[in-house]
């Protein structure tokens, strides 16, 4: 973007900073208006990734927390720059769409909140297409500028629900963002593969020659892409668009500890036995800070939370997961708004669980309590492993057997 009223590039503390605003011009609104200023802080790898090929397809593998979301946002801004005409931002609602695809509803909803806040001042309309949101129709889909969805939902809407938008908006797609693209190697990857193949096929249709879809841009990112070259070939990514960054780019270095325990008579008993070790490990390594406990199943996450809350209960007023009366009172008030009775009782002890079986309201409640530090221990399945921004001091992976079985099968 060249217009200085829309994007100002500055340098501060050796980090390039992209500032959206503070003046945004809109033909419909008349004179320039003040807008909330948003900042995107980029490190050197992020800047290099977008500056080398500003309009090309890209596949990027980089560690968690190294700025992949910022790359998505810069690509969205690059697409929006096509609305700049003679120094004015002329936004045509829904005429140039970005499709963001993530593997979980929780990740979609996190990005929805973030991007609605960041791009809302530009008049950009974000729409969630997941199983948690049925309040959409042909009009809302056509008027959306950024559609955030899961592979299964987007595949269903475009394949079966023609009356609710269907393929009618495909010609307006100018950018496809694929988060956690390693999902392709998962049984659920078939839906994502079908979506990308459908978009690629329609993009080459002669009837789409003058539409944004004819030159649609693909950006796929993940922390783990073992066959990045194969993926790049499939997405028509030039060699310069393949970016692979190692652990040296991780903003916070990790310390890894591995503990082995004697096997049990069967897998079920072994999983049960592991519950007994989690509390001591948390006491030794989390030191009163936030911790995530990853379990292989929803039931396993619930049982781990139950065991931890029962152990915390035995400490009485010395519960290690609760610092003071103020935190205790906040947890008590929060528990009253939780619809899951089992989870409600765990919250009182500073413990929670998170999985795809919780309703949207309860998931949002738990995420908020964990982010604020009121819930110290969160037991979860892999729903939180797909890029959701819930920083933790300590991460416990309870049993790697599920990972090994998947790898060997």
Layout of strands and helices, then pairs:
Blueprint: E1 7-12, E2 15-20, E3 23-26, E4 30-34, E5 38-41, H1 44-52, E6 58-61, H2 68-80, E7 84-85, E8 88-89, E9 97-101, H3 105-119, E10 126-129, H4 138-143, E11 146-149, H5 151-160, E12 173-178, H6 189-203, E13 217-222, H7 228-234, E14 242-244, H8 267-285, E15 291-294, H9 298-313, H10 325-336, H11 341-347, E16 351-354, H12 360-372, E17 377-380, E18 394-397, H13 401-408
Parallel strand pairs: 6-13, 6-14, 9-11, 9-12, 10-11, 12-13, 15-17, 15-18, 16-17
Antiparallel strand pairs: 1-2, 2-5, 3-4, 7-8
Helix pairs in contact: 5-6, 8-9, 10-11
Your description of this structure?
This protein has 409 residues and is an alpha/beta fold. The protein has 2 domains: 43-249, Rossmann fold (3-Layer(aba) Sandwich), CATH 3.40.50.300; 267-408, P-loop containing nucleotide triphosphate hydrolases (Rossmann fold). It is built from 13 helices and 18 strands. It has helices spanning 44-52, 68-80, 105-119, 138-143, 151-160, 189-203, 228-234, 267-285, 298-313, 325-336, 341-347, 360-372, 401-408, and strands at 7-12, 15-20, 23-26, 30-34, 38-41, 58-61, 84-85, 88-89, 97-101, 126-129, 146-149, 173-178, 217-222, 242-244, 291-294, 351-354, 377-380, 394-397. The longest helix has 19 residues, at 267-285. The chain is globular and about 70 Å long. Residues 277-409 form the Helicase C-terminal domain.
Write down the Rg.
23 Å
First-residue to last-residue Cα separation:
49 Å
Q: What general outline do the C-alpha atoms trace?
A: globular
Share of residues in helices: 25-40%
* Class computed from helices, strands and strand pairing: alpha/beta
Q: What is the domain total for the residues? A: 2
Strand order in the largest sheet: 10-11-9-12-13-6-14
How many helical elements?
Answer: 13
Query: For this structure, what is the CATH class of the largest domain?
Result: Alpha Beta
Strand content: 15-25%
Per CATH, the architecture of the largest domain is 3-Layer(aba) Sandwich
- What do we call the CATH topology of the largest domain? Rossmann fold
Q: Which consecutive residue ranges, at least 5 long each, have pLDDT under 50? A: 1-42, 403-409
Instruction: Specify the biggest β-sheet.
Output: 7 strands, parallel
CATH superfamily of the largest domain: P-loop containing nucleotide triphosphate hydrolases
- Count the E strands: 18
Mean pLDDT, rounded to whole units? 81
